[in-house]
Amino acid sequence: MTGSRKLEVETNGLDVIDDAERRGTPRQLFWPWFGANVSVLGLSYGSFTLGFGISFWQALIAGVVGILFSFLLCGFIAIAGKRGSAPTMLLSRAAFGVRGNRLPSAISWLLTVGWETVLTALATLATATVFERLGWGGGTPTKVVALVVVAALTVAAGVLGFDAIMRLQTWITWITGVLTVVYVVLVAGDVHWDAVRALPSGSPQQWVGSLVFLMTGFGLGWVNAAADYSRYLPRSSSSRGVVGWTAFGASVAPLVLLVFGLLLAGSSPDLNKAIAADPIGALTTLLPLWFLVPFAIVAVLGLVGGAVLDIYSSGLALLSAGLRVPRPVAALVDGVIMVLGTVYIVFFGGEFLGQFQGFLVTLGVPVAAWCGVMLADVLLRHRDYAEQELFDPAGRYGDVRVGPIALVLVATALGWGLVTNTSADWLKWQGYLLEPFGLGGRDGSWAFANLGVLLALVLGFAVTLLTRPRVRAQEAA
């Protein structure tokens, strides 16, 4: 998509992309999505998934279903990008109204800023662990330097914008792809199939909990950014190609990494426990010293690849939420927040896994509700968006559409009542509907199934399907 054009700061923000700038084919969507999801963090998800108390085969099925399904949601929402040539959270105005869309935009901003902060923190911790094993330090000075380097790469790409991201992601894809294969070969001897096969099976409730966790950790973490890259494609591009290349590019690396991560974590209880505190750094304990520096490169680049897409989309979400600044400035603002959040996680945050799960599930509920609404809205439309009216409160899409906003709020309230986060003290108020709904309360068998995410997704989708007349009226206006 970038061609041979000179690399410059992208000036497009919430703008509709001109015909002259729309280029490329759906196949090129593979690069940003693969580069953003090839992170070795995918290996650690094997440990996270087994933490639900399920067997290898149960975890494998949950991974295949959760990853493929959630990234297919991204693919379907990406169709809106090529139809409207605008960012995801601007196109969301068609469902929520021009100013009514500020609520889901704010939620989207929180999610993407949270993700970029988590990824930057993990890259910082991983670098410190590698340096410590090499005897080069690893304490506070190393963490500070690592944070500066990772943040500089992420913020620079976010400020430069689309062309820089597409070029960076292509390089990240090749480098991390090759080095990840080398990592797998080096540690393959640490897989002990007898130990993996001996893992006891869990209950259906535990399996559902792992499925929802994987959905929120992968595709549902990207749905609010799914159209940000397809918007540069010509409108004549194949919708099937947009869906297919988005879902394939995003899911192929996580699927492979998850399977191998399950084998490693299932083979070693000590490694499984260590990953909870340092998800990337713990993986270095299996490596020979000579590969530690290449591992640091693949770990940092993989995490930066995800953080770069997040900071770009978080800047767009911030603009859609109402901040009136140029897009590069919005990305810079998010970069400052990302650095402050990383400092807290790295130096004051304590154990990582509990806080991470709490973050995913809590924001996963309102994002799932928005995703259900957006999916149904895209499905109901058969024509391109009236682009200029996405900026006009008096236009066909309206100003504040109370129905969809109320739907997201109700679905979120119900969803939070059916999830629990006991590992994160500040989220123990959730799960208030588990007892009234006869699901055993916060200590019952359904407590960690996190049904609230699924409920919010299904409720948002099903109720929005009933609004076909509204969509028909908009398209006929």
TrEMBL record:
Pfam families: Transp_cyt_pur (PF02133). GO terms for molecular function: transmembrane transporter activity. The keyword Ribosomal protein does not apply. The chain crosses the membrane at residues 29-48, 54-80, 109-131, 143-164, 171-188, 208-230, 242-266, 286-309, 329-347, 359-380, 400-419, 446-466. It is a multi-pass membrane protein. PANTHER family: PURINE-CYTOSINE PERMEASE FCY2-RELATED. This is Allantoin permease.
